[in-house]
Queue: 2 jobs
Job 1
Amino acid sequence: MRAVIAEDSVLLRVGLVKVLEAVGFEVVAAVGDATELLAAVEEHRPKVVVADVRMPPGFHDEGVKAAMVIRRQWPETAVLLLSQFVEERYAADLLATNTSGVGYLLKQRVANVDDFVEALQRVAEGGTALDPEVVAQLLVRRHRDPLEKLTPRERDVLGLMAEGRSNAAIAAALVVSDSAVAKHINSILTKLDLPPAEDSHRRVMAVLRFLEVG
């Protein structure tokens, strides 16, 4: 599975290359700015891109803008953005048109290699990975009716759903059975007037749209 990395910090860029290669990705390019990123994607057509939100020359939102170009011109390429801080609007920009094959994580998540790799693989396979801190802020911001209808456990489940986790992953995180998770999700969808859907991407899209990200 081919990957392109865009990160201006040489140390982090080298570290990401080593992590990806260790789990079977073929890193076909590792670049330091958004212009080089777009050129690398056009040349190599990777399965996934891992990119910093802020890159030269302005260190503002170059990575986000490049990611949106990639999603528009090469929709088969998944994109995982990394950010130093929680910046909801960047997550919203990335997720505004499509929640399949996209992710937004804080850089600190890279330190937990297993979790980072799991999120990256989920994105590369067409899923979604949204940082728990971003989800938490969205839930706090939207903590009013109809979210007020949800029980504390249902809000926990909703947060993990919004991160892009499967039912099995939610069950493991909350130490409950798969059937309990399914019941919570059905209850959440009913309370939020969202139609039940077997397809996980549609489910995540529905949740993220409700959270006013999509």
Note: The chain has ten helices and six strands.
Job 2
Amino acid sequence: MPRQICLTCQRPLNVCYCSALVHIANRIKVLIIQHPLEVKHPFNTGRMAHLCLANSELVVAEALGYAELARLLGPGSALLYPNLVWLPAVEQVGAGGQLAAGLLEQLVVIDASWRKSKKMLHLHPALQQLPRVSFEGALQSNYQIRRSSIVNSLSTLESIVMAMAQLEPENNFQGLLQPFEEMIALQQRQGGQ
């Protein structure tokens, strides 16, 4: 008999983190473009962020058509992604969401493994040209149940929390970490690392 799955978080009922979900109002829309392989990953944090943020959208696709991407990327959009040497140099978003042309209205986040996120960027040159939100210095992730091949990497949710804290300093986004911490604790109690 298959395990029962929570319809909200898509996790087995014995490791459902929905009781820890929070609802946070955010001015800047968060658009999460999720790779299809991430949807079925048991420790997917992009969906978790979407469930918690009032002003968010989750789109599942590896490749988007030109018209669909144009519809999703309105003026005032910026990409949350590290400044890697192969990416074009673009405007960096300032504190409080300042852009040269005004205020940031939408933060675009790619939810995928590093390898898949790079492929998605190659498939969408328009994303590469967006102003960018990125972090400098040593970063510390609490994502103990999933490993990354990249040093200083954060989960999608941790990255969103850090970015939104910079972009909307008047709001407290730390509550987003509650379901993340609950998911980790539940998984560790199950003995699944």
Note: The radius of gyration is 16 Å.
